[in-house]
Design goal:
Structural class: alpha/beta
Shape: globular
Order of helices and strands: EHEHEHEHEHHEHHHE
Largest sheet: 7 strands, parallel
Distance between the termini: 43 Å
Number of strands: 7
Number of helices: 9
Strand order of the largest sheet: 3-2-1-4-5-6-7
Strand content: 5-15%
Bound molecules: NADP nicotinamide-adenine-dinucleotide phosphate
């Protein structure tokens, strides 16, 4: 691939789980990959993932530490990615946390930390990456929402609000940026097997599976394949949409 044809994808929270699967799949699809991670304990996993992507897919991959909830850290990260790769063509806002609790017992901190990371993080990345994409006159922004943002979930007012907010952010940004050939879409995964759902008991997992038409939890690759599609030329005329990847849970 010539330097001119190279495309770069920035994936947030990509050291593990769904983010790692997305980074890997975008690498396999020919994108250079910027892997964002947050905590020091994720640095090793991020480094190993970058090595793996470079070996498997003959693309470039590099790691960038930043807390997506911090506006200035994201600004510095985006500048560093642009410096390293020359542009940013795909942004996947994947970083996310939960801090569950019933509304009557939820602390302000519990609410704010989840909204600041999940929704604020997506805004911070969009805010700093959009000008680069506007200059390029092309870009794909993919925001990871959740079925919970569409239908709600007891014990998750903070998480559901952040994920519903991501849908509003997606649709509004799609309206603003469409004329610059930038698409903005959201993926709403159902229950995907990662550390986030690992905490569920076997009975809990069985109860969940019984509500999923396909009868099983999803794999991170199920979400990753959808992200690759949205980043591809085949999805050039899709914007402002929320794609469910939930095995029929939301039916
Ligand atoms: P996960 O395994 O817990 O991974 C979350 C990732 O987010 C980690 O890599 C973590 O990095 C990163 N992260 C957290 N806070 C961050 C911050 N402030 N700045 C940068 N990165 C941060 O979760 P997952 O299941 O893969 O979830 C990925 C996304 O999918 C999330 O947005 C989640 O809400 C969404 N989702 C998941 C499911 C599911 O069933 N698993 C369903 C619907 C939606 P560090 O370890 O470095 O902190």
């Amino acid at each position: 691939m010539t330097e001119q044809q190279r495309r770069t994808a920035l994936v947030t929270g990509a050291a593990r789980g769904i983010g790692a699967a997305i980074a890997q799949a975008l690498g396999a699809a020919g994108f250079d990959v910027a892997i964002n991670y947050h905590s020091d304990k994720s640095a090793e996993a991020a480094r190993i993932l970058a090595e793996q992507i470079e070996e498997e897919s003959s693309v470039r991959a590099a790691i960038f530490q930043a807390n997506v909830a911090d506006f200035d850290e994201v600004k510095a990260m985006v500048a560093a990615v642009k410096e390293a790769f020359g542009g940013i063509h795909v942004l996947v806002n994947n970083a996310g946390i939960t801090a569950d609790g019933l509304v009557m017992r939820m602390s302000e901190e519990q609410f704010r930390s989840v909204v600041d990371t999940n929704l604020g993080g997506a805004f911070n990345c969009l805010r700093h990456v959009a000008p680069i994409m506007v200059k390029q006159r092309e870009g794909r922004i993919i925001n990871i929402s959740s079925v919970v943002g569409q239908y709600g979930n007891a014990g998750q007012v903070n998480y559901a609000a952040s994920k519903a907010g991501i849908i509003g952010l997606t649709k509004s940004a799609a309206k603003e940026l469409g004329r610059k050939s930038i698409t903005v879409n959201a993926i709403a995964p159902g229950f995907i097997e990662t550390a986030m759902t690992e905490a569920l008991s076997e009975e809990g997992q069985a109860a969940l599976s019984s509500r999923i038409s396909l009868g099983r939890l999803g794999a991170p690759e199920d979400v990753a394949n959808t992200a690759v599609f949205l980043a591809s030329d085949s999805a050039a005329y899709i914007t402002g949409q929320v794609l469910g990847v939930d095995g029929g849970l939301s039916l």
